[in-house]
């Protein structure tokens, strides 16, 4: 029943061999790995104008176009740089790997944690934005903002748990719808003005200029617009998810992504200049332009609707990228190992569920208020860009392979520009919350190093020398000590005792007396039962059920020496109802947990299965 | 370290023999078991006046006095009735026991759940009231209402976990302070008017009468004042917590409680009449009277302060009563067994923690708003009174012991009056939330019956016939099949293998192949190691680590027959750091959980302890 329900929701289990069928081709790889990058185009231009328009007035449109050009230039720098990375790292070359490989472990971990933080924020921010779109339309839902956002996140999580390919179909379509409808708007808008001479009257008054452009102002505008570049990492990190030839496919997708962003971002920026849209807290730039081009017609609602959906879908890039990143870190031993294992449906289910939980916690803590989360956003991704670019730069300089000067120039320039962006974002948003990131990254790096240390220490201690042979055991002469704890004389105990008698001929039945009455009842019954196995009874004045047993085993009173292994045979009855375990076995669980800490004790659990009506 | 901290907070562990030293004498038993009853006096008179004053104006004070007289009469009816109960039930005679014993299981469970609900509400309501007193004084704390209430509850929980006697001292003193300061106020107030002829001008105008008194109105007023009687049950339920002679001590405490309530309730009602205090949402009756008597002097603040504290302390009666009640229900098998076990410090710690959790959940759900919880309150306790009185009535009628007519009259009258009160409270407050109680009680009864059924079914199946002897086992000829799962060849595995070789000479090492590369590496190493024990490898295309093992054991391929017991020896390494277990052993835990469901498999855990730096 339960597993049928799970299969219905998550799809059937998948064999490991199915993995190659589960990979992306170019057509589905593009939307699933690029929805983050493409969706940020929806607000990047607006962010730039917000900075400029209060100061330079109408001239903003000119400088906005320059800033957009710079960003597109930076994007192609990144695209070409990441194409070099894809060539160099066929198994996935995210910042984590590139930085670790070329700059060392610590820079790698910094890049890894910066990216992890950003992925988590992407999920939280974009689903909150999606909810905001829904609640603007239906204000009565406003008080259910948090539950709606959490449900959206859980819905995405379920979609992603269904496995790689199915989720790409599920989430790929809206990206294409957005691209198509925006492309249609760009073409219509340009045609309308240039061929039909439509008026392009601004909907809102353009503020008067109060000052002149400055380098600082322009850089701030540029930095704000850089939000458009947050999703590019995902493609080069996702190479292993592509169908063969995966490197080639990834490079094509990356280039297509660049072209799509160029077209949409450039197109939208041009339309903004053409129609003089004015940033405004109640009406987005896209909405203004769509109103001017289509009026409040059907097409306007299509634009608004696909924009809202793609903003939510941006979270999906994180769901594709984060589990892969975590699996890489986990394989290196810096994160718990279970993150590197694929689930029943071949997705990295633990990573997906972890991302879901973290995002939900963020949403609940920040009450689904986007504006509280935004300042934390985008710092992380530019830190990881900087480290990745610097890593590639060092690689070329060290290796001096053919054309190394050209390649090093591309990456070096990228490193400088992204580093400048980190500084600008970090400084301007520091007091708004970006400081949290600068505390969180060292903390995460510390945790990851501690985990690695732990795994290394354990592995060292477990390492077996090939010359270390098993003990010489003369089976016939083997001493076998067994203790069977008893609480009441029942069938479950008898089964455990029967088992103990098959493995040992030195058995003691041990009772811990907490309640005198019960103990006397047991003693009487044991005498009646009379099977010639000694019953040892120890008082437990503090009602502890474990210390008297351990004390007895270690005491002189007991026959086994300090180097003999003692087998403790614990009867445990097993009930089929899930809530049954709340009612039983608390004590035996506790005993087992405590005995595990003792060196020479082996713990046997003999299950007795209770049939239920 | 950890246990030292716990000892510091909760006090040292206590031996079972300490139980008799931990019990209450009369002096400490009175405040700890009566703070609920005494504290409700602080608002009972006010509740009566609220109902009356809008209708009958000045005449209210007369009828209030009549209602107070009726309530005092009802209280002494209950006191005498419960003295009869204490005589009859020396081991604690709460409504649960009395109803179960004389009316049957279902009425007993109804009384038990009604009381449990009321105890939980007492904690939530009284701590919320205490928080309200704090936040009225310091309004800037208003937004931290919920955390403050939760902290208050946790503080009480810790106090109660310290053990019976220490908590009575901790919580007993404020009750005495309240009694003394209110007594001082009553005496001063009366002396001032009668001997010094002080004016007793009302602080607020008394509303004009708009109608005449009616039976219905008077009954509603009476029912509202019955809140004063909510804590009486606690004493007769708590007999086992008294020092010997416990019955006599409990009866004395019950009588003292009656006298204290009579004096304070009667005195406050008389003062209200004398000083014409008018109920008012911003100034309590006690505060008005204290103002008139003392002005805003030091004594006024003493009165206000002890009132606030005793309102919070009322929660403590529930902490004393609820765990005892739950322990009784649990001993009868209607609640999980762990509620009947005393903790390290001899209190019923599980019950205390459970009460704390439920109250915190209520506080969080209802946002610490007292007025949302009040309508749910007091229905439960009167349902349990009715059942208890009816039970005692039936007992006398059935047994016909000496003076049975007199005794039956007392309890019969009590049953009628309390039942009438249930009807009045239930009907007037039904739409305000009392309906929740009428849904919740049947639900709790259903759960308790289901638990009992489960325990009975398990006990029946486990019951051992004394003639059912252990199996005849010829130790030397015993077949012993063992399987040791392997993931990597390391010291932990070797220890498990060594152990398996001491108990078996039919060993198979079993590997589940999820990752081909790792499997090949293992096969190569196993060949090198070459110790003559067969290694069986099974592919697991769906990456399950358990099904292939169970399938193999049941298959024809395996040597053991379907009736032979197979021992699965699982290596488990044990790390000392608490977070270490997140990083390891997930798989072995999972395997153990699944294997438990198989009938002929015994599971051995061989711990390998990892030393850490």
From TrEMBL, chains A, B:
Gene Ontology MF annotations: transmembrane transporter activity
Domain of life: Bacteria
Name of the protein this chain belongs to: Transporter protein
Record localization: Membrane
Alphabetically ordered keywords of this record: Membrane, Transmembrane, Transmembrane helix
Topology in the lipid bilayer: Multi-pass membrane protein
GO cellular component, one term: membrane
Main location: membrane
Keyword Secreted: no
PANTHER family with a match to the protein in the record: POTASSIUM TRANSPORTER KIMA
Pfam families: AA_permease_2
Transmembrane portions of the chain: 63-82, 144-161, 173-193, 213-232, 253-278, 298-328, 348-368, 374-396, 408-427, 433-451
Organism: Clostridium scatologenes
